[in-house]
Amino acid sequence: MPESPSAHPAVGTRLSTRIAFFISGFGTAAWAPLVPFAKARVGLANGTLGLVLLCLGAGSIIAMPLAGAFTTRFGCRAVLLAGIGLICLTLPLLTTVGSIPGLAASLLLFGAGAGSLDCAMNIQAIIVERASGRPMMSGFHGLFSIGGIIGAALVSFLLALGTSPLSSAAIVVVGILLALWRAEAYFLRYGAAGSGPVFAIPRGIVLLLGILCFVVFLTEGSALDWSAVFLTSVRDVKPAYAGLGYVAFASMMTIGRLTGDTIVKRLGRGKIVVMGGLAAAGGLALIALVPSWKIGILGYALVGAGCANLVPVLYTAIGHQKAMPEHVAVPAVSTLGYAGILAGPAAIGFLAHAASLSVAFLIVAVLLVGVALSGFTLRARTRW
User: Fold this and answer.
1) Quick one: 27 and 119 in the same domain?
2) Could you point out which of 164, 175, 193, 314 has its C-alpha 20 to 30 Å from the C-alpha of 360?
3) Are residues 283 and 346 in the same domain?
């Protein structure tokens, strides 16, 4: 007979954590297909749109340190509910605002909700994983990936059927609320123990973890923003097939995360960092150096497989370090990671302009080798 969450609080808490990660991926990815509609409604040029979209990342970065402090004072549940509530309120708003200031303000709040949810769910995940005594973080992050795929696909499908952007957003909100109804009773009413400032400059092992997350997120951002451009402009792939690189990357990342807890348990977290960093670096080297576009697709699959469990393992390391309290360390590491997402694609564009996209990818590959080498240091300093 299957376990009932109500009869087993630990089971319910693990399930609620998985649902929080799913909601995060589902809600934030639902915005992606709506971007062209917002662009047309407000009448934005590409350059202006890029600047306005930065508000989403800015809202997340501003909210994360506050969310970390609030989890300590009010518990993970309060911050999770606040973050999810902001997403539900602002997603429909993003489909209706008709001015640049209105869109920028809405994105700032939407980003604040996403950042708060991201911070609180990772703090809860660290607590839950540590209490269970076994690897769970990859599975949690795998639910984020699945939520992202379903959220983007659902909205795209609804829009293709002729559903209005507002109605599509409303359907997403209903889905989030149904998932929340199933999970909220088991959100932790406490957060990470400890005291300290709301925000602190990362130091020691936390700074290293943040830098490593920056590199991994930069790699993920390069796959999202530059894979199609590279395949069409450098490998002469037809535009209709240019998305295959990112599909291969995202598919292998999702599969890797869903199977990651078993792999982590078998190999150990230090080996995951070493092997994952080397696999991702090798994938980028294949993409940059081998002229065949088919090998390039294989390279993107290898990058996805290599990156899949790096971030989950790095977040687990936060729970094993003593340099900074978790409620400060999690937002510090997350902020550096988000910086990789925001600044990374632009940096790659600069390198591509100065040299070439192939050279830019090889530079990222070298950084990933550095990530791999850090696995030995992390194992010694976090006592995984």
Assistant:
1) yes
2) 314
3) yes
Tokens describing residue 227: 């894979």
Tell me: do 136 and 225 sit in the same domain.
no
High-pLDDT (> 90) share of the chain, % = 67
Predicted pLDDT at 370:
97
For residues 88 and 109, what is the distance between their CA atoms, to the nearest angstrom? 11
Same domain, 151 and 288: no
- Kindly state whether residue 179 falls inside one of the protein's structural domains: yes
Q: Kindly tell me if the per-residue pLDDT of 210 is higher than 80.
A: yes
What pTM does this model have? 0.85
Counted domains in the chain: 2
**C-alpha to C-alpha distance for 35 and 110, rounded to whole angstroms:** 13
Closest of 140, 295, 307 to residue 222, by C-alpha: 307
Structure tokens given for 162: 């002729």
Are the CB atoms for 156 and 33 separated by under 8 Å? yes
* Domain range enclosing 315: 204-382
CA pseudo-torsion sign 144, 195, 70, 211: negative
245 residue type, one letter = G
Displacement of CA 331 from its chain's centroid (Å): 13
Residue 158 near residue 170 (C-beta atoms within 8 A): no
Residue 19's alpha-carbon distances to 15, 22, 32, 102, in angstroms, are 6, 5, 21, 31
Give the model confidence (pLDDT) of 73-108 as tens digits. Answer: 899 999 999 999 999 999 999 999 989 999 999 999
CATH number of the domain bearing residue 366? 1.20.1250.20
